[in-house]
Design a protein that fits this description.
It is a single chain. The protein is of the alpha+beta class and 222 residues long. The chain has one domain (22-54, 68-220). It is built from 6 helices and 11 strands. The chain has a 4-stranded antiparallel β-sheet with strand order 5-10-1-11. It has a 4-stranded antiparallel β-sheet with strand order 3-4-7-6. Strands 2-9-8 form a 3-stranded antiparallel β-sheet, covered by helices on one side. It is globular, with a radius of gyration of 22 Å.
Length: 222
């Protein structure tokens, strides 16, 4: 095993030079091309999971409440507005970057971040919170969507989730110009919106929902 030299020069004296970070901000509006299906983890679902892990006796199953399930599936901002995890848009762009920009996923993750608004969500354990970063979803009130899904050993179940039919969001991208340019960021987001998407049943998961594109001047015209 090699032995470290006692008098080895510190890194600052080794002639290592790192290029300075060129951090910039870019505001981008994304326009939905297909409905966005939202499915946040409800407090009820998290409590059931925690009770199982803590070996708490399982109570009798409550009657299904479609309206409550619908409401619990939303992400809410502090002012009551609707949100969606900002990381979903980053993940979509990172996935798109591996084929468009020739970046590895690690390089893409380190090149930019998407900034939203922090929101505190009640945890399953009393007093605990889960902080999530959300971008604001605009486009009016969501409608209640009913879907039949398969759970567990193939058992059928009905799910009630919010769907935003005509939606848009304005995101703030913090990026390193040494790695990606503004044009590359916009291209990544465009490809991500078409090929990957966000939310339930998106193209990445063999669906066609949650698709979007970078807004053009025509989209933003009054």
């Amino acid at each position: 095993m090699p032995i470290a030299k006692k008098n080895a020069a510190p890194l600052s004296d080794a002639g290592i030079e790192l290029p300075p970070l060129m951090i910039d901000l870019l505001q981008v509006t994304l326009i939905g091309d297909s409905p966005l299906i939202v499915h946040a983890w409800s407090a009820k679902a998290k409590k059931e999971m925690l009770d199982k892990q803590m070996k708490v006796a399982k109570p009798a199953k409550e009657a299904k409440d479609p309206r409550a399930d619908f409401e619990a599936s939303m992400y809410r901002l502090a002012d009551g507005g609707y949100g969606f995890p900002s990381v979903a848009f980053k993940n979509a762009a990172v996935t798109a970057g591996t084929s468009v920009a020739g970046l590895t996923k690690i390089q893409a993750r380190q090149a930019f971040h998407i900034l939203g608004e922090d929101a505190d969500i009640e945890g399953a354990f009393e007093g605990a919170i889960s902080r999530v970063n959300l971008v604001r979803i605009e486009g009016g009130e969501p409608t209640m969507r009913e879907d039949m899904v398969r759970v567990g050993m193939g058992t059928a179940d009905l799910r009630y989730r919010p769907e935003f039919t005509n939606w848009k969001t304005t995101i703030l991208v913090r990026f390193n110009r040494n790695v990606l340019s503004e044009a590359q960021i916009l291209n990544l987001l465009n490809v991500a919106g078409f090929a990957v998407g966000v939310g339930e049943w998106r193209p990445e998961k063999d669906g066609q929902y949650g698709m979007f594109h970078v807004a053009t001047e025509k989209d933003l015209a009054p």
